[in-house]
């Protein structure tokens, strides 16, 4: 209720820009919306209305540069920055226009080592349907996998407990689900929401800071997840796990890797929690069922490979 | 962002209480959670966690008594009551315990003649799954139609413009979609959200105040909507329209009547808007497509029958 | 078990050839496979392997010219012709090559006035997937509505009882379902299968001979039926009924009209009967439920409009 | 076209009869239809109309005793027995009544070591829906996983080439798909149909005779396959692979083990071939994609564990 709306953008490092453009545009089916003078390529999901949500840049190492949450307006942005500072978190401002079609961004580093941003302004370019008498979908909805939106990120880093405190106490998120470590007390993984999505962001305790487990894209149905898997195979995309259902969040999912080894998820479903809901807790013994509900299996690659 | 969470309860008048209990419990598949000394029967959807969301009482006339939105906490409740009063709306307090498992309710009458409530407290009884290592569903999920939640109401009454102002300016809702009358200006129908549901409440301009068009229940998939239609037929429930897709909201739906003639909806889908989204507008010429997307047809019964 | 395989082709009359080509190719999403010197345009469904299944020609009046069932081989063709003749039905031979990519056809007229054909040879052109290591679908599967196959026809004409006798006694079909007229005895509608499809052909008693109620195309899922309805609306196709489920056959369906007023169906589901199954009978009182299972309604247009 | 209809029954050995009854009745959701004086328990799928299709008996070793195909009538049975004998296959007759509700069975041993039967008579007990004005499903359709029918078996044994010859030349099956061994010539796996199901039976070359890879049960949708996986996990059933799609047959599937280690499949989809279709061939390099289309992976357990 603090005015943090949703994960609005994420910047990802890739090895080969043009190969990645082809992958994200034609296989994942994002819409390319622009390129900037820093060499970045901007994408959005077809049903998103803001100019961009997924940005890639060429680099030697894969992984995540930063991610940003959109907030309601500039007053909210200023208020949240003040709250962060008061809490003891240093912030800086990225100028408007540094990212295409995007206003000023308040940037700070999380205890897990991830660079997070808040911003209030990104130009609305629409979802390709008109705002007058729109049809329910269009050709872009069927170009490649074609998720409807960037849904959330799962990030690996140290001290997720400190992250949790910031998201709960300053940013107004609530803890939807969590996994306890073998000791039955330590929170090894956290799913947090600032809305009634089952997760807007998630963190897993991990020694190395600033790592990306996956960016997640929402599909409209279990049948569309199957179609996503078909398209992955047709394009020889490496799949990590799925199709399957998570016990955690109930989401139905496939995880795969982009050409640079960044994992991404195409998923649907899960329930819609509210801030007055009690947190769901998974203990270590049931974590296999939480991860892969039908198979009740811990997948080594899924748990250990990050970028 | 004012702390209004969701439509939390609605009270509906029925002709024959026991026949209605059988209908709502065994055909619609709600979970009966209690009865009070006023003769009311309380239900919830299987995946809702609060004690009740749908309450029926026996009466000579069908229709809606009142509906309530849950807010974040008692501070929010007090703040919103003050805001309503300052706006010029009189409120009264229904005492805690007047409804089973429910705290104090702030009650007021909308310009359209509907009695609306806000409340902060309703006992959590859970969804029948544990909060530790829950499965994704249980037997209750397949008893009758078994919607996951009370989703929204569509109400008919005069002066929806005045309602809109209150919902937008005091309660923090935003206008997701609207239908313009033949003159191209008058807003004949409004879909409003306090979350990123495509509608938490909707209003249609109508001379008679306080009328109910339908209460809506969320299904998990288009296949579950088909199953809902099957169960309606097996139980000789009168169907109004559907299965079909609305152009408005993109929702996929069936409308039917309870034994007293109160219309209800079982639907799935639609998109998830945010407060920064531009409103979608349907003009009168495209309203048939907005109402029944494949058939592009205005259904007389759907537009005119209310309780 | 006589070697009659499936409805293999149907020839339909349309008013405007090029408008109809655009409709069948881009809206219904058939694959155009050729045109002949008689001005006919040949189509197939994407997953059919023979050269053509749906043929249109320009004419002053809409309707059906003829339909053909493919049989196992030329021996079967000869045998069935002999059987028909012995039964008392006159046959003629249409020469190989009269239709593109199609061998000799044995032609005869049914008591209901429809011209039926049997043939053994039509060139296999494949479904656009290779026969070595094929993917499950391809771009053609998503071009327009894109049904997987021509599934069956429903035809109106007098004396369906005589048709039934021929299909059962000579052609080896079995009666899957039937509707009895109000007298509880007269078979007003018949669904017949030569396979374990729930219908390969169907007949309804009607005074005028040789009429077409609809040609039916198979979709892969209920979600694809919804998508079909979306595409119909996007292209302003006139829909008759649906989406809905039939009680009869359990099929889930939409009926609509081509630009010339020929009705077609896009459907999925139904069960798979075998010749040892007892026939399902619908009496007149339950026919509304048989026709539109959720709505339990007789649709006037559906019952009376034919071409 | 020889009158062989479908796989009608299979007899499976289990370790603990009552535990297995609970599993097959309450988890897989078959309908128990009887027990005989040999201690066998008979089941059918809810939508099957004959008395039984899946029979279990207690034994020290898991695996398959025999399977039987239903044929059109006793004349067909006699004819096929004569054809088998003429081909050089010895047959014996199991008397009517040896299996509950089942007529005389013609029994013979396949080159792969499996005991196969043909039979013409099994009492119709119906699918729990009436033959007059039936609904599309009933409570049994949602008890446990609740497949609609026993669909096919995949069997392991030596000399599948000899099996193929019998099925093609005597029993009238056709080869739908096949996998070639690394040499590009040897047919390592065969999918055969006597109908237009994508498989009525399948064989894999294997040194040990008479082994069972799996019995397969048909589900109605991809969503029902997901539900099957949920129910498996709720009941701690060991899952082998899935949910996933096969490239081979396009079927969408989960494989799991019964309490005795007999693998079974719950699947949906695939296409519907006809005898005039060219066989689909998978070469060894593409077999991973044929087995698990999205993951393009050979699963060791799936390929090697049989009972």
UniProtKB/TrEMBL annotation, chains A, B, C, D:
Domain of life, per lineage: Bacteria
GO molecular function, one term: catechol 2,3-dioxygenase activity
Keywords: Aromatic hydrocarbons catabolism, Dioxygenase, Iron, Metal-binding, Oxidoreductase, Repeat
First and last residue of the signal peptide: none
Coiled coil: none
Ranges for domain VOC: 6-121, 149-269
Catalytic activity: catechol + O2 = (2Z,4E)-2-hydroxy-6-oxohexa-2,4-dienoate + H(+)
InterPro entries found in the cross-reference section: Catechol_2-3_dOase (IPR017624), Glyas_Bleomycin-R_OHBP_Dase (IPR029068), Glyas_Fos-R_dOase_dom (IPR004360), GlyoxalaseI/FosfomycinResist (IPR050383), VOC_core (IPR037523), Xdiol_ring_cleave_dOase_1/2 (IPR000486), XylE-like_N (IPR054560)
Enzyme Commission no: 1.13.11.2
Broad enzyme group: oxidoreductase
Segments traversing the membrane: none
Cofactor requirement: Fe(2+)
Family: Belongs to the extradiol ring-cleavage dioxygenase family.
PANTHER family: GLYOXALASE FAMILY PROTEIN
Binding partners and assembly: Homotetramer.
Name of the protein described by the UniProt record: Metapyrocatechase
Source organism of the structure: Amphritea atlantica
């Amino acid at each position: 209720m603090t005015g943090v709306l949703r994960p609005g953008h994420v910047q990802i490092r890739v090895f080969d820009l043009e190969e990645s453009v082809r992958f994200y545009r034609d296989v994942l089916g994002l819409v390319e919306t622009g390129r900037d003078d820093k060499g970045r390529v901007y994408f959005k999901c077809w049903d998103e209305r803001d100019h961009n949500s997924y940005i890639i840049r060429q680099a030697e190492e894969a992984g995540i540069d930063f991610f940003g949450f959109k907030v309601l307006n500039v007053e909210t942005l200023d208020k949240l920055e003040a709250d962060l500072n008061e809490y003891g978190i240093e912030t800086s401002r990225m100028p408007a226009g540094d990212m295409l079609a995007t206003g000023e961004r308040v940037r700070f580093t999380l205890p897990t080592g991830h660079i997070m941003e808040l911003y209030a302004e990104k130009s609305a370019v629409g979802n390709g349907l008109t705002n007058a008498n729109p049809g329910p979908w269009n050709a872009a909805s069927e170009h490649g996998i074609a998720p409807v939106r960037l849904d959330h990120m799962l990030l690996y880093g140290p001290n997720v407990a400190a992250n949790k405190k910031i998201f709960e106490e300053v940013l107004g998120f609530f803890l939807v689900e969590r996994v306890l470590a073998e000791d039955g007390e330590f929170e090894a993984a956290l799913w947090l929401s600032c809305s009634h999505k089952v997760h807007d962001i998630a963190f897993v305790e991990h020694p190395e800071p600033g790592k990306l487990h996956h960016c997640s894209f929402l599909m409209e149905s279990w049948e569309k997840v199957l179609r996503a898997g078909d398209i992955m195979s047709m394009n020889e995309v490496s799949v990590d796990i799925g199709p399957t259902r998570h016990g955690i969040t109930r989401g139905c999912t496939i995880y795969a890797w982009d050409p640079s080894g960044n994992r991404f998820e195409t998923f649907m479903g899960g329930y819609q929690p509210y801030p007055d809901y009690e947190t769901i807790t998974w203990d270590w013994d049931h974590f296999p069922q939480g991860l892969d509900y039908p198979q009740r299996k811990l997948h080594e690659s899924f748990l250990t490979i990050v970028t």
